[in-house]
Amino acid sequence: MNAGMDIENEKKQDLLLAFHSTLLMSRTKEELITNIHEQFRRFFPFSHCSLLLCSDNRTTLRPYVIDPVSKLRDHPLFNWISHHDFAVDDGINNVVLATTEPVVIRISDYADKSDAPTHIPIIRESGLNEVLAISLPAESGAIGMLCFFSENENTFNPHVYPILQSAAPIIAKSTVSFLR
């Protein structure tokens, strides 16, 4: 094994250990999203992150908690977007929820389409151009997704995908603990 792979494995293990301890200390969903933000900022750049949860019948998603530093908060429709149910079967959400792999969504690929999901123009108008999303796995299927937003395209490097995949189950369990 080469030294570069050792460093990456060490970083991954450091992140997972930090996640376990940090997420256990989160007492509110706001602390949870702030801790997720702080931990991932050590590994890749992004504007903000958010957690969305599936409805019981898994037909809709609703924002559960949005990062306090979100650029979306300045948009006139922020209150609407933060309390709205979005269809899972919209050509984007269903793709993310169907896999354990991270999915990169370029907003420009959807923004000008007449059938674009309703949240895409709001994301674009907020100055955000790319989203990295991953499903949050549970035994019964995905409970939702974690999204990272960027003002730039080509921000998310595939080398962080294994870290994100390893952290997703931890984040899912931490999120479920707030729902009980």
Search tags:
40% helix, globular, 180 residues, Beta-Lactamase, alpha+beta
How would you sum up this structure, described in words?
- This protein has 180 residues and is an alpha+beta fold.
- The chain has one domain: Beta-Lactamase, CATH 3.30.450.40.
- Helices cover 40% and strands 19% of the residues.
- It has 6 helices and 6 strands; from the N terminus they run H-H-E-E-H-E-H-E-H-E-E-H.
- A 6-stranded antiparallel beta sheet has the order 3-2-1-6-5-4.
- A hairpin with a 5-residue loop joins strand 1 and strand 2.
- Helix 1 runs antiparallel to helix 2 and helix 1 packs parallel to helix 6.
- The radius of gyration is 16 Å and the shape is globular.
- It starts with a helix and ends with a helix.
- The mean pLDDT is 89.
Can you lay out the helices and strands and say which pair or pack?
Blueprint: H1 3-25, H2 29-41, E1 48-54, E2 60-66, H3 78-82, E3 86-87, H4 93-97, E4 103-106, H5 119-125, E5 130-136, E6 144-150, H6 161-179
Antiparallel strand pairs: 1-2, 1-6, 2-3, 4-5, 5-6
